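To: structure subgroup
Subject: Chain for Friday's discussion

All,

I'm putting the inputs and outputs inline so they're searchable in the archive.
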Amino acid sequence: MKSRFLFLAIGSVMHFVSAQGQTVPAPVTVVNAPTIDTALSGLDAKISQLLDTANKQLESADKQLKALGNPDTPVSPSVQAALDSGASSLGQPTVELRDNATRTQELQALTGSEVFDADAFGTMTAIGNTITRRDGTVVQRDPEKYKFDSVAMKQVTDYNEIRDAALTRKRELQEAIQLLTEQMNETKDLVTVNKLSTMITALNGQVQDCNQIILVSQADADMMEKELLTTSRVITKGERERRTEFNKRTTPAAGTTNSTTRTTVVVGDPNKSFTGANPGQANTTSSFAPNLRWGDYNTRPQTNGSGTGTGGTPSP
């Protein structure tokens, strides 16, 4: 405010001089002259402070730009080698599971002889395809008897193959990830770090795919075993029912008679116990054959005191 009054006072004096056309011999007094110097000094300090802040911001932005890096600048040879290794691992084909159509074709082609060489990774002795009898005769095994076991073993074999392929693939991916991680730890360029991080994320995704493939393959083998056991029970039960129905006789309907005449079989003479030579009339009904009637007949040679047989001679 004091500076403002000072400028107004000077302006009034100059206006008065111009209006009179002559110089007034009155003295001119400058009011608060030290205040101008103070204001200018504070302004210079403020400007200097702003300039310092701007310079610091420019330096920080320059550092950030340098840390961010230039996307158009080629990466170092070591980083490029790591990226190429990751891209090569990422581009390899994944392990594929067999669909039902493929599995059906493979299982139907089995003969049963596939299990003759099974030895549980060398921990047991395989049965082989021949059998040696006691007399030294060598005969071939019947592969049809082992077909069920061959189907079950095929699922285990498929699981082992898929598991080995998935683990091999997983090791390759992990090696590429390790190389990329080492390069990322040594890199200060954010653009390069972003490239490495993106590649690592993609490779980690395929590592998880390998784990899932192993689990799915195991589940497939377990479900196939359950299917085989269930089918076996169904077939066994069906065969038992078939035999039961096969041995049954049809019961005649009420009111119907059997027109077939059955001949009564008469054996022996009912008047001569079991020593008679001539057949007699029907006697007691047999319990196991309705048409068989027991009579009497000579069942063994007649003997006398000398021990010689008399054939069909009736006893006295």
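Points worth raising on Friday:
Helices lie at 2-20, 33-68, 77-90, 100-108, 147-186, 190-247.
Residues 286 and 292 are 6 Å apart (CA to CA).

D.
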